[in-house]
Amino acid sequence: MIALSNALSRAMNYVQTIRISDVVDILIVAFLIFKLIQLIRKTNTYNVAKGLLIFLVVLWLAELLRLTMISFILRKATELGVVVLVILFQPELRHVLEKIGSRLTSRSNNADPEMNSAITQTVMACADMAESRTGALIIFERYVSLQSIITTGTVIDSEVSSELLKNIFYNKAPLHDGAVIVRDGRIAAAGCVLPLSASTTISKELGMRHRAGIGMSEQSDAVVLIVSEETGSISCAMEGTLKRHLKPQAVDRILRQELTMETDNNEESNFFVKIIKKLFADKPEEVGSDEKTDRE
């Protein structure tokens, strides 16, 4: 009992020394670890991370058992470890830095009448294309620039209209196989080539159009709409997560929530509120978890 009482007393003393800055520090570290685990799960870096963990365990055991030669070799290897990690995780690090930078230099298209009109016209087009089972891939650029993607297609620079989108994705049109990029409420380009997702967790039911849409959402903060040519299902991809079999009303709600949210002077604080909400949010829907199938 005395030992337990002393332990509780020491624990209370530690709790009393905790400051608000310590709590914030712990939350930030927890969030970074959470995002790192998410990043590893969504990419093909799982085996690399597992190998790194094994290496650290071996290094710890070598120090614990006083294996001098092995410890020396592993310590020398660790000195080059940072450079090796930067090389191995270069694409992932680049995407993370792009997203952080975009938050600091973001262009605001909030409450823009042209964006509102673009959303309305896009939802109308997607509803019609879903009914006629016309495949489509529409990318809404947000903070991360998609200029490198735009250069792979045909520059249009036109207002978004339902008829124009349906004409672009008509199966005999020359640009129907690529993606349409919408920038600041206008069609910037069509027939664009997108990077395919390298994730191994994507359902095999999904075809190239969905893989390209998911890949684009993994490498940027864009909102991606996909209409399946086979089933007419409408899907939305954001941050590597795919929401499938959406109704037009749900698509409209998602686009307005993500693209036309009003800003205020507390935008930076709202950003950190979103981080905390994401940290304690439910697990996102897994890609390809629906019973229905899409092969486009």
In short:
It is built from 12 helices and 7 strands.
Q: How is this structure best described in words?
A:
This protein is an alpha+beta fold and 296 residues long. The protein has 2 domains: 2-104, no CATH class; 113-261 and 271-279, YojJ-like (1, CATH 3.40.1700.10. Helix content is 54%, strand content 13%. Strands 2-4-3-1-5-6-7 form a 7-stranded mixed beta sheet, sandwiched between helices. A hairpin with a 2-residue loop joins strand 6 (234-238) and strand 7. Helix 3 (46-64) packs antiparallel against helix 4 (68-79), helix 7 packs across helix 9 (162-168) and helix 7 runs antiparallel to helix 11 (248-259). It is elongated and about 75 Å long. Mean pLDDT is 79; it is low at 106-110 and 262-295.
Keywords:
296 residues; alpha+beta; YojJ-like (1; 2 domains; 7-stranded mixed sheet; 7 strands; elongated
What would you report as the Rg, rounded to the nearest angstrom? 24 Å
CATH class of the largest domain: Alpha Beta
Number of helices: 12
Stretches where pLDDT falls below 50 for ≥5 residues? 106-110, 262-295
Q: What is the SS-derived class?
A: alpha+beta
Q: Count every beta strand, where a strand is a DSSP E run of 2 or more residues.
A: 7
Q: How many discrete domains?
A: 2
Described by its quaternary structure, the protein is single chain
**Named CATH topology of the largest domain:** YojJ-like (1
* Helix-strand sequence: HHHHHHHEHEHEEHEEEHH
- The name of the CATH superfamily of the largest domain reads DNA integrity scanning protein, DisA, N-terminal domain
Work out the strand percent: 5-15%
Sheet with most strands: strand arrangement:
2-4-3-1-5-6-7
Mean pLDDT: 79
- N- and C-termini, Cα separation: 67 Å
Q: What overall geometry do the principal axes of the alpha carbons give?
A: elongated
CATH architecture descriptor text of the largest domain: 3-Layer(aba) Sandwich
Largest sheet: 7 strands, mixed
What portion of residues is helical?
Answer: 40-55%
